[in-house]
Amino acid sequence: MPSEVESRAIEEFRKTPIGHHSSDLQVILNEFRALPMEDKHCLICTKANREWQLAKTSGVRGKPVKVLSKKFTKLEDAEWYVFKLRWKQARGETLS
Hints:
It is a single chain. The protein is of the alpha+beta class. The chain has one domain (about 5-90). It is built from three helices and three strands. The chain has helices spanning about 5-15, 25-35, 75-90; strands at about 40-45, 50-55, 65-70. The radius of gyration is 14 Å and the shape is globular.
């Protein structure tokens, strides 16, 4: 279960996934960015500023990402989805 500080940071990201973040949230985001590159969830833009698709990195430089079926029409929703996946990967906990 997330600590009180983590809970505030999670809520901050949920409300404002894009832009400047508090230092507490930045610590979490840096942790996620430091996860191994193999099978890391990411987003690709499939229609400029209109559609994003979930993908996974290969972990091998130059090898393309594996595009998954999940698509989004709002970048904020896409970012929140990836945040939850990375939280699960890093912490082993599911966020709702």
